[in-house]
Specification:
about 15% strand, Epimerase_deHydtase, binds uridine-5'-diphosphate, alpha/beta, UDP-galactose 4-epimerase, domain 1, 2 domains, Rossmann fold, NAD(P)-bd_dom_sf, about 325 residues, UDP_G4E, about 35% helix
Length: about 325
């Protein structure tokens, strides 16, 4: 009898890597995705249910059909800039859609939920590295919608006995080391994909948003975590909940900060190519430095990233954006 795990957003960049990790661990991922940003050809390890999160009837039918042991909820809109321009879309999909899912889970007696949260829930951190106890004051609608659902999980856990793992991702990057999956965002706004595209000559140049930050080289510092490490952490979270572990909120990062310039240096190391750049003014809402304290993920989930050094991230992602890397 297969052990099913429902994965909302399973056709997306992170979701598809999670499905692969689940499958390798002997579970069958059931992808629930409207394919608004995901890709049907990334769904290879289990069935695809193409439907909206807000479609309560289809959600209920799907949960009843598969009786999943756990739900991993990654399905969301995730562009910070778009969330500022179109908050209605973000509140509808990320809040109303997520609550519809949560209610459907309650109705079907599914009481284990792993949620894709974000370091965006912290806003501008009061101190570094960011610990889970740090105040959560998101500075954009995207981060607020993620925090609202974290709060709903906490309240539903207290009242209805569900158990959850809220996983606060830092910057997901890289690609499946076997080359079976890749990042395919449309539009592509993230730093590493854009820098790789520029290095490969598929983008005229990379705009660097700000060179006058109070950081060592003046550019912003972020914590990049390899998507396959992120996927392993989801597997660990599922196993934690299956073993009757309690609810938790944990950071998922590498624990190291990497600047924009250091990314460009890593691309040069891996490929010998220079990234053509243009120096621009700061992007509104960008905190200068974000990186995680990862002690809790290590202690509670046994999570230790193995692919998240910046060279491995660049080497796995490079070819998927048309950049030849040396062996
Ligand atoms: N960034 C940049 N040029 C780009 C995209 C991003 O300089 O074309 C910078 C951005 O200002 C931030 C970092 O790269 O400091 C990471 O941005 P990304 O959008 O990848 O992730 P975020 O941290 O905003 O979630």
């Amino acid at each position: 009898m297969p052990r099913y795990i429902l994965v909302t957003g399973g056709a997306g960049f992170i979701g598809s890597h999670i499905c692969k990790a689940l499958s390798r661990a002997g579970m069958t991922p059931v992808t629930y995705d409207n394919l608004s940003t995901g890709h049907a050809d990334s769904v290879r390890w289990g069935p695809l249910i193409r439907a909206e999160l807000a479609d309560a009837a289809t959600l209920r039918r799907t949960l009843a059909e598969f009786s999943p042991d756990c739900v991993i909820h990654c399905g969301a809109n995730a562009y910070v800039g778009e969330s500022v321009d179109m908050p209605r879309k973000y509140y509808r999909n990320n809040v109303v859609g997520s609550l519809t899912l949560l209610e459907a889970c309650l109705d079907q007696d599914i009481d284990r939920i792993v949620f894709s949260s974000s370091c965006a829930t912290y806003g501008v951190p009061a101190s570094l590295p960011i610990r889970e106890e740090s105040p959560q004051h998101p500075v954009n609608p995207y981060g607020r919608t993620k925090l609202i659902f974290e709060m709903a999980l906490e309240d539903f856990a207290a009242a209805y006995g569900i158990r959850y793992a809220a996983l606060r991702y830092f910057n997901a990057a890289g690609a499946d080391p076997d080359g079976e999956l890749a990042e395919r965002h449309q539009p592509e706004t993230h730093l590493i994909p854009r820098a790789l595209l520029a290095a490969a000559g598929r983008l005229e140049r990379l705009d660097i948003f700000g060179t006058d930050y109070a950081t060592e080289d003046g550019t912003c510092v972020r914590d990049y975590i390899h998507v396959s490490d992120l996927a392993q952490a989801h597997l660990a979270a599922v196993n934690h909940l299956m073993a009757d572990g309690g609810s938790l909120s944990v950071n998922l990062g590498s624990g190291r900060g990497t600047s924009v310039r250091e990314i460009l240096e890593a691309i040069h190391r891996a490929s010998g190519c220079e990234v053509p750049v243009r120096y621009c003014s700061r992007r509104i809402g960008d905190p200068p430095i974000l990186f995680a304290n990862t002690a809790r993920a290590q202690a509670e989930l046994g999570f230790a990233p193995v692919l998240s050094d910046i060279d491995t991230i660049i080497r796995t992602a490079g070819p998927t954006f048309g950049l030849q890397v040396t062996a």
